[in-house]
Design goal:
The complex is a heterodimer.
Chain A (H helix, E strand, L loop, with lengths): L6 H8 L8 H10 L1 H19 L9 H36 L3 H30 L15 H24 L6 H27 L3 H18 L7 H13 L2 H24 L9
Chain B lengths: L5 H8 L3 H23 L2 H18 L9 H27 L8 H7 L5 H6 L3 H10 L3 H12 L4 H8 L3 H24 L1
Helix pairs in contact in B: 1-2, 2-3, 2-4, 3-4, 7-10, 8-9, 8-10, 9-10
The chains are: A mainly alpha, B mainly alpha.
């Protein structure tokens, strides 16, 4: 037999993609030609070998690395969805109820945008400053009001700030290098603090705005302290934090935020009060 | 592998971050292997895994509870791999429209070509197969994987990769020929 099957024909045969019209001729040839049958067997063996190779495995700890890269991106997506939903919801109302309503809608939208920005900043500050996981609103809470997001973000921010202040107050005044470490954390917290204060002012939450204003002052002082700070200057800073009852006030507001978060969650979990999910 | 705990998927759909993380922990290794088979290198596979999880997170609300989560995720990963390969292909088109197979990606396979030392040292089947797969261009590898592993028809492979059926066929032919040349001596021994 002279007209042997081509390699292409054998490959198509292996994958069951021989054109219907050519299939009988091919089968007949394979049955009668030892050379082509041998080539066909070799092809099967090679492709079976490919199948038998175990898959390439990822390095140890791969899952942890995936999550570390993924989680911040999920939060960014969450914030974008939150802002979009706020815009759609409020924008829809404005269209239905008349143009005058857009006047009242604007500050709420500004608050939603501000909250979105502060959540991102707070998240980044938390990542950089202490490396711990930040408790951000879960996706199912994405349809929550901007105020609710503000409460969650402020509570989280106050917890982190409180931790930093406690460490600073308890630091030995001779350990000046401790201040250098806290300065980096303070710098990260300042930006988040400022955004939250502005958002709290816009939403008319005076108590939160006041404590954040006081915190901002102290955080700035820590962040901008000179590199050659003396023991006395560190002592002064610690006593100001203590005498102004700053830590106590932070604890009170943080506790209140946790309580509000719980209330918000419970309210959000009641089906009748659920916000529409777009 | 079956989903070990369907309630994890349900909780993840409801926005439970811990549940979503559990899914990431459970399936990332599997989709990495899949992405590596499609793309042929670790960096691209990691990028595909990342993109696949982002898409899965975004589309989770549309996932049907009755379906198998891993099968759904598998599909997303294959699509992400194809997207990456197609985007590379466009860049290769611009680089050298005359011959897609001779673009920069083919150079990447060169460093995985088996040197005599490597061949002598390696007795593992998986090493041999990986070396052989390393000889394929990105398109050959994608076309071969979609046909051979994913079981798509040649026509479907062409549709997925944005290629004509005849070009797809030839990519698969070239891939199989390279695999045969590299692996046949091993099979015969």
């Amino acid at each position: 037999m002279t007209n042997h099957l081509s390699e292409e024909e054998l490959i198509l045969h292996y994958y069951g993609e021989t054109p219907r019209a050519a299939a009988p001729r091919l089968a007949e040839h394979l049955a009668s030609c030892g050379e082509c049958e041998a080539a066909n067997t070799r092809l099967h063996r090679v492709l079976t070998l490919v199948d038998s190779a175990p898959p390439v495995d990822a390095r140890p700890g791969f899952e942890r690395d995936v999550w570390a890269r993924l989680e911040p991106q999920l939060d960014e997506g969450l914030v974008r969805r939150l802002v979009r939903r706020s815009a759609v919801r409020e924008g829809g109302s404005a269209t239905r109820e008349g143009g005058w309503r857009t006047f009242f809608w604007a500050p709420q939208w500004a608050l939603a945008g501000g909250v979105a920005a502060l959540v991102v900043v707070a998240f980044m500050a938390g990542r950089i400053s202490n490396g711990t996981d930040v408790v951000l609103p879960a996706p199912q809470r994405a349809a929550a009001s901007p105020e609710r997001v503000l409460h969650a973000a402020v509570g989280d921010h106050l917890d982190r700030t409180q931790m930093m202040l406690v460490e600073l107050v308890n630091a030995d005044t001779d350990q000046l290098d401790q201040l250098a470490g806290e300065q980096a954390r303070a710098s990260d917290l300042v930006a988040a603090n400022r955004l939250m204060r502005q958002s709290a002012e816009q939403s008319g939450d005076g108590a939160i705005a006041d404590i954040l204003e006081d915190l901002e002052r102290v955080l700035l002082e820590i962040a901008n302290a000179p590199a050659d700070v003396t023991s006395n200057e560190l002592s002064d800073l610690k006593s100001r934090i203590t005498t102004e009852d700053l830590l106590f006030r932070v604890r009170v507001i943080a506790s209140e935020m946790r309580q509000r978060n719980r209330t918000d969650r419970e309210a959000g979990d009641r089906p009748a009060q659920r916000l529409p999910v777009s | 592998m079956e989903e070990r705990d369907p309630s994890v998927v349900a909780r993840a759909r409801d926005g439970d971050r811990d549940a979503f993380r559990a899914l990431v922990d459970l399936h990332s290794r599997y989709i990495y292997s899949l992405a590596h088979r499609m793309t042929g290198n670790a960096q691209d596979a990691e990028d595909v895994v990342q993109e696949a999880w982002l898409k899965a997170h975004k589309q989770l609300a549309r996932f049907e509870a009755r379906a198998d989560f891993r099968t759904w995720l598998h599909r997303i990963t294959v699509n992400c791999s194809i997207d990456l390969i197609r985007s590379r292909r466009h860049r290769e088109d611009a680089h050298d429209p005359a011959d897609l197979e001779q673009g920069p990606l083919s150079e990447r396979g060169a460093d995985t070509q088996p040197t005599p030392e490597r061949v002598a040292a390696s007795v593992q089947i998986s090493d041999r197969v990986q070396q052989a797969l390393g000889l394929l261009t990105a398109l050959e590898r994608a076309a071969f994987t979609l046909r051979h592993v994913e079981g798509m028809s040649i026509e479907e492979v062409g549709e997925q990769l944005g290629m004509k059926t005849s070009a797809t066929k030839h990519s698969i032919f070239r891939a199989v020929r390279k695999m045969r040349t590299a692996l046949e001596p091993f099979v015969e021994s």
